[in-house]
Write a structure and sequence with these properties.
By secondary structure, the chain is α+β, with helices and mostly antiparallel strands. It has a domain at about 80-120 and about 155-195 and about 280-425. Helices cover about 10% and strands about 30% of the residues. It has helices at about 10-15, 25-30, 100-105, 125-135, 160-170, 320, 440-445; strands at about 80-85, 110-115, 140, 145, 175-185, 190-205, 220-230, 235-240, 250-255, 260, 295-305, 335-345, 355-360, 370-375, 380-390, 395-405, 410-415, 425. The strands form 3 sheets. Strands 5, 6, 7, 8, 9, 10, 11, 12, 13, 14, 15, 16, 17 and 18 form a 14-stranded antiparallel β-sheet that branches. It has a two-stranded antiparallel ribbon with strand order 1-2. The longest helix has 13 residues, at about 125-135. It is globular, with a radius of gyration of 21 Å. It comes from Pseudoduganella albidiflava.
Length: about 450
């Protein structure tokens, strides 16, 4: 894993350089040249199985309107180049995560259909411009908190694992949106149980391009209001994530109590009410937590099979995607992409249910596509996944739906499933600041 494949010598030298956090002017000058504007290698691979980046997909399909379903597959005519099962897994083992291999071994019905690689990731020009500025001005302080970054990828030429993870946390996915969704926990016996049916209102103040002077470090805000299942109808939660995790805050409204309460420990391996306690806070969207409990290390950049451009997962009914033990393989598109491989190991003196994790971060979009987590006994416990989809109207390629497979218990979970929703990640005008207040949370949750 530590061996770098097809990585230019100059970039390899940058990766393993120590002590300097910001890129030099010479390094940053490669953005838009040998590197994409967001920091990926622009060239394809030597085998031709990964093409060169040519600008991504930034033009919506004819007839698409904001707020409509995003289930139009821009590559519906593609056929798989290979289908991987337990029978031929060893031929492709170097391009599979530990979790993917474990799923192939555990379930004969599990299959990875690999399609031609389409490098669709894109962003607005102003995000590219700010990314170039961040390359030389952003750095991590001794608390692993970014300083000097705004409105772009903070570390497009990363040198540390923590920088790669901040690129994932601060990746471009729009500024303000609304997303009705459902979540399901499927039992080991194969029965899906709906845990959430609600609407998420979200924003990324970090990307308010006209508000740099007002930015207070809060980079992500969310309000989730549940309409079901009946036992959870009326529940509501809001959260604010800050570059400085000591300033994070989350509140929950419980309709049975008619009260809004502050969550005392809204981080790390604490179960999050947003998933009915099925996922921990730092498992949301592959990784959504604070970094300071772990030591982060780049294991390398590697060509891997990851879910990508899976707009097909947004089509049909929920049941079409929900298999008894895993997602229906017909609904997931996999592609070969270069990913940053980052390992997290628990620091001495800290506690966490998963003392070791490995994350696979797409180099083009900085979206976390896969992750594996080991328990305190060193046993591979969970494999996490997301389903990046292309959104040319933003433009962006990023995830909507995510979840995990529990390799020990046999249960699995899918969150933010929008398949049956008429609105699938709608861009909206900037949410008023009052949206995230405790009063608004109480009002939204009344039933």
């Amino acid at each position: 894993m530590t061996r770098m494949k097809h990585l230019p010598a100059a970039l390899a030298a940058i990766l393993f350089a120590g002590g300097v956090c910001a890129a030099t002017a010479e390094e940053a000058a490669q953005l838009g040249k040998s590197l994409t504007p967001l920091g990926a290698e622009k060239a394809g691979n030597k085998d031709g199985t990964i093409p060169a980046w040519d600008g991504g997909l930034a033009k919506p399909a004819a007839g698409f309107t904001n707020g409509a379903k995003r289930d139009q597959d821009p590559f519906a005519g593609d056929k798989p180049v290979v289908s991987i099962t337990a029978n031929n897994m060893e031929q492709h083992a170097d391009k599979l995560s530990d979790g993917s291999k474990a799923m192939l071994k555990k379930y004969p019905s599990y299959r990875i259909d690999v399609y031609p690689t389409r490098r669709t990731a894109a962003a607005p020009d102003w995000v590219y411009a700010n990314t170039a500025k961040n390359a030389t001005r952003a750095k991590l302080n001794d608390k692993l908190v970014p300083e000097g970054a705004y409105a772009g990828i903070p570390f497009p030429i990363p040198k540390t694992g923590a920088e790669v993870m901040w690129n994932h946390l601060l990746r471009w996915r729009g500024t303000d949106w609304q997303k009705p969704f459902r979540s399901y926990l499927t039992t080991a016996a194969g029965k899906p149980v709906m845990t959430v049916d609600g609407t998420a209102d979200g924003s990324m103040p970090y990307y308010y391009k006209d508000a740099a002077d007002k930015f207070n470090g809060t980079y992500w805000t969310i309000r989730l209001v549940n309409s079901g299942p009946p036992i959870r109808a009326g529940e509501a939660i809001n959260g604010k994530l800050n570059l400085d995790p000591e300033k994070d805050s989350s509140y929950v409204y419980l309709p049975g109590q008619r009260r809004t309460r502050k969550l005392p420990n809204a981080c790390c391996d604490t179960p999050t009410p947003a998933t009915a306690g099925v996922m921990s806070f730092d498992e949301v969207d592959i990784f959504g937590g604070r970094l300071d409990r772990f030591d982060w290390k780049i294991l390398g950049k590697k060509e891997m099979y990851i879910p990508y451009n899976s707009n097909r997962s947004l089509k049909g009914k929920d049941a079409d995607l929900l298999g008894p033990n895993h997602l229906n393989p017909d609904g997931v598109r996999w592609e070969l992409h270069r990913v940053w491989v980052v390992e997290a190991k628990l620091k001495a003196g800290q506690r966490h249910l998963a003392p070791r994790s490995v994350y696979y971060i797409d180099e083009d979009s900085w979206t976390g596509a896969l992750a594996d987590r080991w328990d305190a006994n060193g046993q591979l416990w969970k494999t996490l996944w997301s389903l990046p989809v292309t959104m040319p109207d933003l433009p962006a390629t990023t995830s909507i739906t995510f979840g995990f497979y529990d390799l020990v218990s046999g249960t699995w979970f899918v969150s933010d499933l929008v398949t049956e929703k008429a609105v699938q990640y709608k861009q909206v005008p900037r949410w008023p600041e009052a949206t995230w207040s405790q009063e608004a949370l109480s009002g939204a949750g009344l039933r």
